[in-house]
Amino acid sequence: MVSVISPAGPGSFKFPNETLSDVDAEIAARLISTAADIALVLDKDGVIEDLAYADQDLSREGLGNWLGRPWVETVTVESRPKVEEMLEAAASKANPRWRQVNHPSSRGLDLPVRYSAIQLAEGGRVIAIGRDLRPVASLQQRLVEAQIAVEREYARLRQAETRYRLLFQIASEAVLIVDATTQKVVEANPAASHLIGQPVERLVGRGLRGLFAEDAERALQALLAMVRAAGHAEDVSLRLPQDEREFIASASLFRQEQASHFLIRLSPLTAGAAAESEPSVASALIQVVENLPDAFLVTDPDRRVLAANIAFLDLAQMASEEQVRGERLERWLGRHGIELDVLIANLREHGSVRHFRTILRGEYGSQAEVEVAAVSVLEGEQPCFGFVLRDVGARITKTRPFAPEMPRSVDQLTELVGRVPLKELVRETTDVIERLCIEAALELTGDNRASAAEILGLSRQSLYSKLRRYGLVDVAPDDDSSGH
After folding, report:
1. Which of 333, 403, 401, 407 is nearest to 370 (CA)?
2. 154-167, pLDDT tens digit by residue?
3. pLDDT above 90 as % of the chain
4. What is the distance, to the nearest Å, from the Cα of residue 266 to the centroid of all Cα atoms in its chain?
5. Model confidence over 192-225: pLDDT tens digits?
6. How far apart are the first and last CA of the chain?
7. Is residue 159 in some structural domain?
8. Where residue 477 falls among pLDDT bands split at 50, 70, 90?
9. What is the mean pLDDT of the chain?
10. How far, in Å, CA of 128 to CA of 74, rounded?
11. Are residues 294 and 239 in the same domain?
12. Which end of the chain is more exposed for a tag (fewer CB within 10 A), N or C?
């Protein structure tokens, strides 16, 4: 086999007759099967006499059925001309070319293989060396899918930008987009141009300084500073230079392309608007709720916080309302996972809940016993739940200084089902029964503790210990010289 190989190009062996003269058929077969993913030995008519493959996964492609069949019959119809060309080139001793052909697969997708064919001797056998292209095909498929996904996302972004541009242009409310660092106008819609009295081309790129009257400029800077620090601020009144007209300005802060921007909305202050801006009953109610000593918050039906007052922020150990808005209520309220589900289920069924005892967990590890009163408002444009949380930890400690919080009756015990794990519930049940037995023994003996200890089968010291545990006595046994 070696004697018929001649240099085929600048990259071929120069002296194969000398350097490879001791290579026998077995070593040649091992070299070929190691170097190729698929190796075919063909007779002069192109019939497969022998084959080898490196990956055992290829055995599931039906390669064993190729023996005794013409090579051209093992490939797909469109690949047959390529096989015939490779066989003709091998017979004519032309430089071998790599050609990709596809084999039908029993698993659905074609098996792509890149072949090169070399004739071993004049009019003799042909060796076809193949490389499995499935990994390459898989990468190409993933690349195409990634490209399609990227193009789809680009299309969605372009559509969203188009909608934004359209809304921005046709909005009746004047809007300015201002760079938070330079305070220069980045964008202005036609309504803002008309309200301020300057074309859009002159507004874009101009700083806010000098755009409004001097006193209005100070109010605007205070508004922007408050929005930057807290995320929101009360609206302010602005006035243009040499103009008596006034505007109501509100601002929001957002990030875009690694930079912060202010969105400033301007509305003309008409007589009706002025009347609306005066303190009203609704605004007074909002102020009252905001300053309630009890925690108050509003959530949507999915338990995401919409608004919260200062008392709730204190209990939850949060710095601002922006930090809690959009977060789920179970982040702070309820124990053992199921307790909040019970509260919400009752709220949906009955419309309101009172005196629901649970805990509120602070962000930094604090824990407070709270009593919840809640109401559901599922009608209207914004369905929501309202919660009032009262910290009752101090009241519990004051009323029961010697005993931990625990149920005092079977009814109270059954109320804990669904709020407390079974393990803790069983422990609470044991404590309730033990306390009831001690109270019954004291009643039978006329509060004679020595007799009560004898009835219960306890030592006097053990009885006093349990009395103190359950808050039934606040004196030491040595103080009771009479036994009562």
Report:
1. 333
2. 888 888 888 888 88
3. 7
4. 35
5. 888 888 888 888 888 888 788 878 888 888 888 8
6. 116
7. no
8. very low
9. 79
10. 13
11. no
12. C
Query: Rounded to whole angstroms, how far apart are CA atoms 51 and 46?
Result: 13
Let me know if residue 127 belongs to a domain.
yes
Count up the domains in the chain and report the number: 4
Strands (E), 280-366: 295-299, 305-308, 352-361
Domain match, 119 and 25 both: yes
- The verdict on 269 and 308 lying in the same domain is no
Q: Which residue would you say has higher pLDDT here, 392 or 421?
A: 392
SS3 92: coil
Question: What are 358-378's pLDDT values in tens digits?
Answer: 888 888 888 888 899 999 988
Tell whether 189 and 87 lie within a shared domain. no
Q: Are residues 294 and 268 in the same domain?
A: no
Beta-carbon neighbour count of residue 18 at 10 Å? 9
- % residues pLDDT > 70 (the chain): 81
What is the helix (H) or strand (E) element at residue 466, kind and residue range?
helix 460-469
Which helix (H) or strand (E) covers residue 323, if one does?
helix 321-324
- Asked if pLDDT for residue 14 goes beyond 70, the answer is no
Residue 213 CB partners (closer than 8 Å, separation 6+)? 238, 239, 240, 241, 243
Copy the structure tokens of residue 42.
């063909």
Which is higher by pLDDT, 6 or 236? 236
In-domain check, residue 160: no
* d(C-alpha 189, C-alpha 176), whole Å: 7
Beta bridge partners of 372: 356, 389
> What tens digit of pLDDT does each residue of 279-305 get?
556 667 777 888 888 999 999 999 999
Q: Give backbone dihedrals phi and psi of 62, rounded to 5 degrees, phi first.
A: 80, 25
Cβ neighbours of residue 104 closer than 8 Å, sequence gap 6 or more: 75, 76, 110, 111
Residues 320 and 370 in one domain: yes
Distance CA 40, CA 66 (A): 10
Highest mean pLDDT among 20-34, 137-151, 436-450: 137-151
* Separation of alpha carbons 155 and 201, rounded Å: 29
pLDDT band at residue 168 using 50, 70 and 90 as cut-offs: confident
What phi, psi does 53 have (nearest 5°)? -145, 150
> Where among 377, 399, 421 does a domain terminate?
399
Contact 387, 372 (CB under 8 A): yes
Residues 180 and 58 occupy one common structural domain = no
Which domain covers residue 83, as residue numbers? 2-132
b/e sequence 95-109, b meaning 16+ C-beta within 10 Å: ebeebebbbeeeeee
Are the CB atoms for 112 and 99 separated by under 8 Å? no
Q: Is residue 162 part of a domain?
A: no
φ, ψ dihedrals at 456, nearest 5°: -80, -10
